[in-house]
């Protein structure tokens, strides 16, 4: 598969011990790099969505731990308890995307917190964060390959997608956008319809930025234009990412995904989720148990910093929704595609991969 350079959302600067983050709030108009020098900087960068996207949040969370231990070492105040307190805070920055809490918890489980010097823990964490980024890049490629298999026999492929699931969201080639890239690299005639994705506009700002940079043909649509676009443009498939997939296949993703899945189902259009296995949360039984992040009302009341509504109104701003598994045609993972996902199909799929423990 031809690998295009894509965009890098983060760079670890070992010389200065700083995480450089491309400020995704400012794209596409400005490419501004923000420096994360402390764990607090990383917490704020995650909360304010300077960095975003479930897989990337997992990686940035571990870099947050690197900076936490650096802070504690520098002030000679390291204790495992203080370190764990900062880790809890980092985990709380975004509640729906499971990768953030999961990768932090996994790192904590493996660290010799009481038995090692802070500089040793720091070295282990840097190595871990780097490996995580590399693993994500490999998983993105594998997801793209499995996704391409589904579309191999088709041509003139019109695909709809939502939010940004590209390089900016994973540090690799992306998940849903990785599959789209693979179809394009395979030389197929294709056209992408990304939703603008109100209110944060990840589709209009970030997906359009990545698609344009790479020359992939697309037409941006307003979120409300999705049904007519599916019908008039004969959309062949919807491919979206995921922030958390429950044990039974119910999938939390960017607000509007459930709407897309419902419309696609009513029109008989296949609806795919593309996500790494790390986005499965086997401790969450169904979508009902997934915490849904609500964000500030200003995100809806302002557009590009300008007020667009009357002042002092009430706003409901859930930024994710849950698509029930019966609306999902397949979940494309790095291990292959889980067709018609439900608890049994998922269990059966992972039973064939002994290294994935779903209990
Ligand atoms: O709020 P965001 O921008 O972090 O939401 C991102 C999404 O919903 C993505 O679809 C998901 O994280 C998958 S990214 C590969």
Please outline the helices and strands:
Layout: E1 10-13, E2 18-22, E3 33-36, H1 39-47, H2 54-74, H3 80-91, H4 98-110, H5 118-151, E4 157-161, H6 167-170, H7 176-185, E5 190-194, H8 202-214, H9 226-232, E6 237-240, E7 244-246, E8 251-254, H10 257-267, E9 271-274, E10 280-281, H11 298-301, E11 302-303, E12 306-307, E13 320-323, E14 330-333, E15 336-339, H12 343-351
Parallel strand pairs: 4-5, 4-6, 6-9, 7-10, 9-14
Antiparallel strand pairs: 1-2, 2-3, 7-8, 8-13, 11-12, 14-15
The structure holds 5-S-methyl-1-O-phosphono-5-thio-D-ribulose (MRU).
5-S-methyl-1-O-phosphono-5-thio-D-ribulose is lined by residues 52-55, 97, 163, 165, 169-170, 175, 202, 241-243, 253-254, 319.
3D structure, described in words:
With 359 residues, the protein is an alpha/beta fold. It folds into two domains: 10-136, Four Helix Bundle (Hemerythrin (Met), subunit A), CATH 1.20.120; 143-351, Rossmann fold (3-Layer(aba) Sandwich). It has twelve helices and 15 strands. The model has no long low-confidence stretch (mean pLDDT 96). The chain binds 5-S-methyl-1-O-phosphono-5-thio-D-ribulose (MRU).
Q: Provide the succession of SSEs.
A: EEEHHHHHEHHEHHEEEHEEHEEEEEH
| Unreliable residue runs | none
Query: Which fold does the CATH topology of the largest domain refer to?
Result: Rossmann fold
The total number of structural domains is 2
Oligomeric state as shown: single chain
Summarize the structure.
With 359 residues, the chain is α/β, with parallel strands linked by helices. The chain has helices at residues 39-47, 54-74, 80-91, 98-110, 118-151, 167-170, 176-185, 202-214, 226-232, 257-267, 298-301, 343-351; strands at residues 10-13, 18-22, 33-36, 157-161, 190-194, 237-240, 244-246, 251-254, 271-274, 280-281, 302-303, 306-307, 320-323, 330-333, 336-339.
